[in-house]
Amino acid sequence: MTARRCLGYKPQMTQIWKERLAKALEEKGLNMLTASRMAGKSDTYVRDLLKRDKEPTIENFINLAKVVGKPVSYLIGETDELKSIIPVMGLIGAGAEVMPDFEQVPPEGLDQIEVPFALPDEMIALEVRGSSMLPVYRDGTAIIVYRHQRKPLASFYGEDAAVRTSDGRRFLKTIMRGVNDTVNLFSWNAAPIEGVHLEWIGEIFATIPRSSRR
After folding, report:
1. Fewest CB within 10 angstroms: 65, 67, 79, 93, which?
2. What sign does the dihedral 29-34-40-43 (CA atoms) show?
3. Prior bond to 135 cis, omega within 30?
C-alpha cells in the first residue's frame, strides 16, 4: 500500500493519529518543538496539530512519520502492527571491511530496511558484501547492530560482531582473545587478523536475509 493511499483519510480521519503521534514522540525522546524543527516546520507546528483541531497534509504527515520513525499506516490507525525502519549505514565486504564510516553517512542512511517488529532507536544496519563470512552471512544479508557498544570487550570473545579497529578499519569478524590486551579477528574464508585493538564493537541483534528485506 502506498503512503498516499494510506493517507486517503480526507475529509474525516480518526483521531487515533494524535494519540499515536504523541506516544511516538515520547518513545523517541522528542519534544514538540524539536519535532517541528526536524520536520522543517514552524516551532509550534506539532503542538498546533496535537492541541488544536488541525490535520497535516499528506506530504507533512509522511514527513512526521519519518521524524518519529513509525510507518504511516500505524500512525493513522490503519494497523496495530508495529514496524521499524532501520537505516543502512554501511557495507560489509570488499575485503571484509565495513565501509563507509557510518558517522559520515546521512541520518537516513544509504538505504532503509523495514522489519516487522519494534526495535530500539539505537539500531543501525550494515549490508554484507562478499564471501568472507560464508556460509553464515551471505551476500546481501543485512545485520542489525547496536550503534553504540553496550558491553565490555570480554563478553564478545567467541562472538560474531561488526568491529572498528584502532586504525579505523571496520570488519565483520569473530572476536577472540589476543595477547597484551589485543584481540584476534577470525573469518570463515579469510586469514585471521591478529593483535589488534578495538575502538568499537557493534553487537549483532538480528540478521535479515536479502529475500526477506523490504
Report:
1. 79
2. positive
3. yes
CB proximity list for 174: less than 8 A, separation 6 or greater:
158, 159, 160, 185, 186, 187
- At residue 163, what is the residue type? V
Distance of alpha carbon 185 from alpha carbon 192, whole angstroms: 6
The runs of H, that is alpha helices, within 88-181 are: none
Amino acid identity of residue 53, one-letter, is: D
Cβ-contact 206, 115 below 8 angstroms: yes
What does the pLDDT look like over 84-129, one tens digit per residue? Answer: 788 888 887 545 556 656 666 777 778 888 876 667 778 899 988 7
- Cis check: omega of the bond before 100, within 30 degrees of 0: yes
Going by C-alpha positions, the residue among 119, 127, 129 that lies closest to residue 86 is 119
**Which residue type sits at 151?**
K
d(C-alpha 144, C-alpha 123), whole Å? 6
* 153 confidence band (pLDDT: 50, 70, 90): very high
